[in-house]
Specification:
Blueprint lengths: L1 H11 L3 E14 L2 E8 L5 E7 L8 E11 L3 E10 L6 H9 L8 H11 L3 H7 L12 H24 L6 H11 L3 H7 L12 H10 L7 H19 L4 E2 H12 L7 H14 L3 E4 L2 E4 H19 L9 H12 L5 H10 L4 E6 L5 H15 L5 E5 L2 H11 L4 E2 H4 L20 E4 L7 H10 L5 E6 L12 H7 L4 E4 L10 H10 L13 E5 L3 H17 L7 E5 L8 H12 L8 E4 L2 E4 L3 E4 L13 E12 L4 E10 L2 E6 L6 E3 L2 E3 L8 E8 L9 H8 L2 E9 L1 H9 L10 H8 L1
Parallel strand pairs: 3-5, 9-13, 9-14, 10-11, 10-12, 12-13, 15-26, 16-24, 16-25, 25-26
Antiparallel strand pairs: 1-2, 1-4, 2-3, 4-5, 6-8, 7-8, 17-18, 19-20, 19-23, 20-21, 21-22
Helix pairs in contact: 2-3, 4-5, 5-6, 9-10, 9-11, 10-11, 12-18, 12-25, 14-15, 20-23, 21-22, 23-24
The chain binds adenosine-5'-triphosphate (ATP).
Catalytic activity: ATP + H2O = ADP + phosphate + H(+)
Enzyme class: isomerase
EC number: 5.6.2.3
Length: about 725
């Protein structure tokens, strides 16, 4: 059987298959091993490299791999698969027991055990520790240990034999085992979709395994997995917290029926079943929530009810006098609604401060913090924001320390925070800036982490795009009646620019105003998308000639696709600002080429590297370097993010993208000296007032819009801010 498998696989892939014995572990880090291996046939020692687990010298292995020639270490076999044949003869079993794998057994005891049970030794020991009771020199505790070790060994063996050929790596098999224990192989073979529960595989990979195993395409397991997959993906891509039954069924059937014929009724039956379990999906009438979003909404709503009902308003200090003193100290006369905000924070535990650019949100926040400290010199005030860029900016404008919510709550890789209901954040006033970016899951973490004695000030601009993740938290809180101060007076307008004026005009649905005597807001009329792209290129060149740097100029696009989408514009801009240089190293990832000097954006949170989704950096170097951990030369790219050098290996480049042009969504919470934006009906589906408003408010010194008046008007008129399906308002209202 074993040999048959080898034959089968030899014919499918052109890899070397070698049987032999591990002689020495040359290097090991986690699962990665470099081993000296004695090939059975040639009796020659070779070096094998790859992911292994629980291996030790003298282990018999069969390895599959490809030969590679390493500049430093010479000829070595890169192992993609391996198996450890089960010991079957008495001699093999004795050698195996004595090999050092099983604590408490050396050669003498191994020989005694095998003498007692013969070729059935491993089977017998698996039945229980008591069978070892008569073996001289083995006490109860050791017997238990030997039994346990053998059981685990056999399970691991079983795992490797059954999973590696299905496309699992050794470490994936180990992760699956950690979760499903002895049931792992059974689960994979009967319902591989369960691997999606532990985020080991997505639906598509699980479906491939199921198809490889010949499992039926209309099984309940497959239909349920597809339903859960589309619910998760659709809420992620649309920002909705719930979807209708019909939406889910339509999408699930599209996915399922690529290679089968599942009926609407069968899918509906499975959806009903999943909803009645009330865990992965929760049904409220026609609305279906992913369970975790439903729970997040309920928790936020509960916490808000509790926070707002626990406020102590009996003040023993002369607030009006304190505001006057603040005005004297800061030489700023607060406007009426700025004063209201200062007063409100002492009357409620949860306050929202919103307003457009230049309306004095930062100034009001400063006043609140200052006066709060005057009232209580020992008050612990914490400043935070959803992204690294927003928190850095907050720190600059307030002159105080500010960090991301993730770092504040000490949220670990698996999303678990150190501060939560049982261990609340020690804090009297928590200020969160850019709070329009809070999605419902992050809001849950924030509200769960604070006690009823903490006040929260949420600062943000509700007219910006909503959070990237599901939910519309800031808007929902305002609409649910949470105390809100809305700043309307524009303080910057007089002395400053058309940018602020036009941002407010856009927000009010009015056309932009181009003042001839100002040179910070341009609209360049162009119809043809190719010409728009060329004009954008020319504008970039012009700004560079004027002395701006690549980092200061940002192209913001509604979409990624098309001639004026980020993908194409990045390619074009790169070709002029950072063209291919003869002899210089480059690295490819997907359709993108990275060169030293390129502006790049991180596209997912990486806690290990401390670089987060949306962080922008500059590539510093591309080349090979000696990786101590791997003990070999690897190609890598280093980039500078916020003054820190970060290294990416070739297989990590999927986390980076060129960033000369980014989507408006990605720009939330950032500011740039100059913003250039294509405005064309090619991006019709995305043209909305809040998108244009968000883009324009990112600019500090200059905005250049290139496109058609028609597209611009469409965007300004479209204030049907794409509705998000959420239930937070309802949940808060019903609590009240
Ligand atoms: N009451 C006031 N009197 C005079 N100037 C003020 C007042 N409030 C704010 N300002 C000034 O107006 C300008 C804009 O204020 P601020 O930076 O607080 O606005 P903002 O809403 O935070 O803007 P943005 O969202 O664009 O950062 C600042 O120069 C600030 O000092």
């Amino acid at each position: 059987m074993f040999a048959e498998q080898i034959e089968q696989q030899t014919s499918q892939v052109s890899t070397a298959i070698i049987k032999g014995i591990i002689k020495r572990i040359i290097f090991q880090k986690d699962d990665f091993h470099i081993l000296s291996f004695m090939a059975e046939k040639t009796k020659e020692p070779i070096t094998i490299v790859g992911d292994f687990f629980n291996v030790a010298p003298e282990d018999d292995l069969t390895v599959w791999g490809e030969w590679e020639s390493h500049p430093k270490f010479g000829h070595q076999l890169k192992v993609s698969k391996w198996e450890r044949p089960l010991p079957s003869t008495m001699e093999q079993i004795e050698k195996y027991l004595a090999s050092g794998h099983i604590k408490g057994i050396g050669p003498v005891k191994a020989a005694r055990i095998v003498r007692e049970f013969g070729e059935r030794t491993l089977d017998v020991i698996q039945t229980g520790p008591d069978v070892l009771g008569n073996i001289k020199g083995i006490n109860r505790e050791q017997a238990q240990h030997i039994h346990q070790s053998i059981v685990e060994r056999m399970e691991e063996q079983h795992l490797l034999l059954n999973l590696l050929h299905l496309g699992f790596s050794a470490s994936m098999a180990k992760r699956a085992y950690k979760h499903f224990k002895s049931k792992t192989v059974d689960i994979v073979k009967t319902n591989p979709y369960r691997l999606t529960e532990v985020n080991l595989f997505g639906f598509h990979k699980a479906d491939q395994i199921a198809s490889h195993l010949g499992l039926p395409t209309d099984s309940s397991e497959r239909i349920q997995a597809a339903i859960l997959h589309v619910t998760e993906e659709t809420t992620k891509s649309t920002g909705h917290c719930w979807l209708t039954r019909d939406e889910i069924l339509e999408e699930a059937l599209k996915l399922l029926n690529k290679n089968s014929n599942v009926s609407w009724e069968s899918a509906e039956k499975e959806l009903t079943y999943l909803s009645t379990l009330d865990s992965q999906l929760v049904q409220m009438g026609e609305q279906i929530y992913p369970g975790r979003l439903f729970r997040a909404e309920s928790i936020v709503a509960n916490r808000i009810s509790s926070l707002t009902s626990s406020v102590h308003t009996n003040r023993h200090f002369p607030l009006h006098r304190m505001i006057e003193l603040y005005e004297k100290r800061s030489k700023i006369k607060l406007a009426k609604n700025q004063r209201e905000a200062v007063e409100a924070i002492f009357q409620t535990n949860l306050l929202i401060l919103t307003g457009g650019p230049g309306t004095g949100k930062t100034q009001t926040t400063r006043a609140i913090i200052d006066i709060f400290e005057q009232v209580n010199a020992n008050a612990k005030i914490v400043l935070s924001a959803p992204t690294g860029r927003a928190s850095r900016r907050m720190s600059e404008v307030t002159g105080r320390e500010a960090g991301t919510i993730h770092s504040l709550l000490k949220i670990n890789k698996s999303g678990k925070p150190t501060y939560d209901t049982n261990n609340p954040l020690p804090c009297d006033l928590l200020v969160i800036d850019e709070s329009s970016m809070l999605d419902i899951s992050l809001a849950r973490r924030v509200f769960e982490s604070i006690s009823d004695d903490t006040k929260i000030l949420l600062v943000g601009d509700i007219d910006q795009l909503p959070s990237v993740g599901p939910g519309n938290v800031l808007n929902d809180l305002i609409n649910a009646g949470v105390s809100t101060v809305r700043l309307k007076e524009i303080f910057r307008q007089g002395k400053e620019s058309q940018i602020v004026i036009n941002a407010h005009r856009i927000n009010q649905g009015k056309n932009i105003d181009i003042a001839v005597n100002k040179d910070d807001f341009y609209f360049i009329a162009k119809e043809d998308p190719e010409e728009i792209a060329q004009l954008i290129l020319r504008s970039v060149r012009r700004l560079l000639q004027k002395g701006m740097t690549v980092e200061e100029i940002q192209i913001l696009c509604p979409m990624k696709k098309g001639p004026v989408g980020t993908t194409n514009l990045n390619r074009l801009i790169q070709s002029i600002v950072n063209p291919k240089m003869y002899g210089a190293s480059e690295l490819m990832s997907g359709n993108e080429v990275f060169r030293s000097g390129d502006k790049v954006i991180q596209t997912k949170n990486n806690y290990g590297k401390q670089v987060f989704n949306g962080d922008v950096g500059i590539v510093q170097n591309i080349g090979s370097f000696y990786d101590e951990d791997e003990g070999r030369e690897v190609m890598s790219l280093t980039a500078i993010f916020n003054g820190e050098t970060v290294r990416y290996q070739e297989n990590e480049l999927g986390q980076l993208s060129l960033a000369y042009a980014v989507t408006v969504h990605k720009s939330q919470g950032s500011e740039y000296e100059a913003v250039i934006m294509p405005v064309t009906t090619q991006h019709y589906v995305m043209l909305a007032r809040n998108l244009l408003y968000t883009a324009v408010t990112r600019a500090k010194k200059m905005v250049i819009l290139v496109g058609t008046q028609k597209a611009l008007h469409l965007a300004i008129r479209n204030n049907k801010i794409s509705q998000r399906n959420t239930g937070l308002i309802h949940k808060i209202v019903t609590k009240g």
